[in-house]
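Protocol check, entry for the methods section draft. Step 1: assemble the input record (protein sequence plus ligand SMILES). Step 2: submit for complex structure prediction. Step 3: store the structure tokens unaltered in the notebook. Ligand used here: adenosine-5'-diphosphate. Step 1 record:
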Amino acid sequence: MTATRVLVLNSGSSSVKYQLLEMTDESRLAVGLVERIGENQSRLTHVCLRRGSPVASEGERRERVEEFADHEAALRAAAEELAADGLGLDSPGLAAIGHRVVHGGQWFTRPTLVDDDVLAEIRRLVPVAPLHNPANLTGITTAQTLSPGLPQVAVFDTTFHTTMPEHAARYAIDVGTADEHRVRRYGFHGTSHAYVSRRTAELLGKDPSEVNVIVLHLGNGASVSAVEGGRCVDTSMGLTPLEGLVMGTRSGDLDPAVVFHLVRVAGMTVDEVDELLNKRSGLVGLCGDNDMREIRRRIEEGDERAQLAFDIYIHRIKKYIGAYYAVLGRVDAVAFTAGVGENSPPVREAALAGLEGLGLAVDPAANEAEGPAADGARLISSRDARVAAAVVPTDEELEIARQTYALVTGREPRQTG
Ligand SMILES: Nc1ncnc2c1ncn2[C@@H]1O[C@H](COP(=O)(O)OP(=O)(O)O)[C@@H](O)[C@H]1O
Ligand SMILES: CC(=O)OP(=O)(O)O
Ligand SMILES: [Mg+2]
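Step 3, stored output:
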């Protein structure tokens, strides 16, 4: 049996998303999610879409609610579910496992076959991606144990941003100190920004090299990037995934002196400030909820705290659209993606409201409608808008699978959407 399948693991701080793909036609054989890892009511949801052997029926959805104490336990459970469908990690059809790795520093400019040196480098970057890289490492080492000898490929969030020019990547601090400690802007969600900017070009009927796109990746973590002819020229996240937009639990941009103030005047430790800015800020810090659905529901009921949190969130997005418009000079499209970007018409409407002077205008009916394309990608701008606005669902897993399969087979990755 030729090995043409790729398992993709996207390990987040408290969840693992996984997908098994058949790369000859890019179909999904199984998808799953383990949420609330480390809590006593973790939940595993597994859907088998095509049988590997006659055990489970197609489209069967299974759920397990139990305690998965850590990412290793979660991955072992996911592997059991795959095995129950005859799609186990030891099946001969599996060509490789592709891992999303959030921080790859400056050096990983392409997907990389994992060896001990690569693992050591990902470990060295833990201090600058404390919510993500430890989970990514556990994902890789557990997969190595469960499928010894199988190629493990790391696909980095930072890679797409390594094309940023020096004037966008450097902070204006002492050069010697910055270089010694590798303090610079790396950017994240790169796999998503790459995929969505290409898919947006395709939606406009153009080659990626011809279009300039502002991509708004609005998930729990959120970032925006300026993509010029297919290359990233600026992005809102920096040394860590804390800079930039207001996020579910992270503050995004603030005056760095806020940190000194909280340490010196409020008597907080550096670790306490770190926890405040990463976990108790953003939407949750402002109004107690980080889920945009719940925030919109509260706004409908007249809740003022939820309204203010929403307004701050939108104001920051607008500032970045303006900034990246200036960086790019000419913009062909603004694309919304990830959980909030794909599913929240009020966010898209508010983010582009009042930007008619920049050539941006939303068609209210299109903004509410479902997309005609199979993947849901669609234009939401009004006819007279000079700059397109689009909803483009991201597919980090497909992109990681393509990169992984290309690396192990020695072929170029597919470039469509
Ligand atoms: N139907 C919806 N309407 C508004 N927001 C939504 C909807 N579905 C999901 N979201 C938002 O998307 C977020 C998750 O986005 P996602 O891209 O999956 O994040 P992550 O990959 O960081 O876990 C949720 O926290 C919620 O705020
Ligand atoms: C880098 C980052 O913020 O990732 P996520 O949105 O998955 O938390
Ligand atoms: Mg995400």
